[in-house]
């Protein structure tokens, strides 16, 4: 199921469902979102703080359900990640989401809710830069803003090797399947829960930030033991920013860890895709058909709106 495309003048919502956003960055991001011709409404509790959360679970859930149920709201953008979206995943009315299909856009900790929404409602969602922590913090905001244009004009996303955007093949092959995934840490934390990521015949997107090699190793080990790569059609590795060894002792590099886990897989694995905690952070729809070609070093993804 695809949400309808946006048009200038449409109402969209911005909510904070994980960590509290910086007010100045949030306001800057909202102003830029308005420059697209959109009318922006924010959650009632968006500026609240409860420890490391953007308000209590009940407050964040209320903001989200209000946006979902409001027929005027055509898209819901998440303000920032951090931690906390998984706390409200069991409380969300997924039938309400299916009844009012609209665009949901975010990444990082929002992987938890985006995956839950996609799997429990059947609605395609978007892995893309967030309003405060990306758009409001960017040194090149207009470049980031152009990535939102795919919400207005349905078109395939094509990511391929170039001199300015080198892509690397860890395992060869060709694959077709639904694109799923997001933040590695969050996906690993979902294992064994009702929201565990289904990877059967899927192309898995993985990205993360500030995770040293041994933690990446641990999370990939957990996913391997859970059979997630054995079930998959292919793997796409996005940006893993600041994946440096910690301490002064010996360590593998992140590249060595990736080669160990993915180099011998019988499915295509491509790394270096500019998706994640990087700029530009290429937005992609999740829950739509994708084609991964190792021989052409190319990823083609169907539109996420209709």
From TrEMBL:
This is LD-carboxypeptidase. Keywords: Carboxypeptidase, Hydrolase, Protease, Serine protease. Residues 176-291 form the LD-carboxypeptidase C-terminal domain. Belongs to the peptidase S66 family. Residues 12-128 form the LD-carboxypeptidase N-terminal domain. The lineage of its organism: Bacteria, Bacillati, Bacillota, Bacilli, Bacillales. CDD domains: Peptidase_S66. PANTHER family: MURAMOYLTETRAPEPTIDE CARBOXYPEPTIDASE (PTHR30237), MUREIN TETRAPEPTIDE CARBOXYPEPTIDASE (PTHR30237:SF2).
């Amino acid at each position: 199921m695809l949400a309808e495309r946006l048009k200038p003048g449409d109402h969209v919502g911005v909510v904070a469902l994980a960590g509290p956003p910086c007010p100045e960055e949030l306001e800057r991001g909202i102003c830029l979102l308005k420059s697209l011709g959109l009318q922006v409404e924010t959650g009632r509790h968006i500026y609240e703080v409860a420890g490391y959360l953007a308000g209590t679970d009940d407050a964040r859930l209320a903001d989200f359900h209000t946006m979902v149920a409001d027929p005027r709201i055509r898209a819901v953008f998440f303000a920032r990640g951090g931690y906390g979206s998984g706390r409200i995943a069991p409380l969300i009315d997924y039938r309400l989401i299916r009844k009012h299909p609209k665009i949901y856009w975010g990444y990082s900790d929002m992987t938890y809710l985006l995956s839950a929404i996609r799997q429990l409602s059947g609605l395609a969602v978007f892995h893309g830069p967030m309003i405060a922590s990306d758009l409001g913090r960017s040194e090149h905001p207009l470049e980031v803003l152009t990535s939102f244009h795919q919400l207005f004009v349905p078109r395939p996303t094509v990511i391929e090797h170039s001199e300015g955007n080198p892509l690397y093949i860890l395992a060869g092959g060709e694959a077709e399947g639904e694109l799923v995934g997001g933040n590695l840490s969050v996906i690993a934390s979902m294992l064994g829960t009702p929201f565990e990521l289904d990877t059967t015949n899927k192309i898995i997107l993985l990205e993360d930030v500030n995770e040293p090699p041994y933690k990446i190793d641990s999370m990939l080990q957990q996913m391997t033991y859970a059979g997630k790569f054995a079930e998959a059609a292919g793997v796409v590795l996005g940006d893993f920013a600041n994946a440096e060894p910690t301490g002064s002792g010996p360590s593998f590099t992140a590249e060595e860890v990736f080669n160990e886990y993915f180099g011998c897989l019988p499915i295509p694995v491509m790394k270096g895709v500019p998706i994640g905690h990087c700029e530009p952070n290429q937005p992609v729809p999740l829950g739509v058909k994708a084609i991964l070609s190792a021989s052409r070093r190319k990823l083609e993804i169907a539109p996420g709106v209709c």
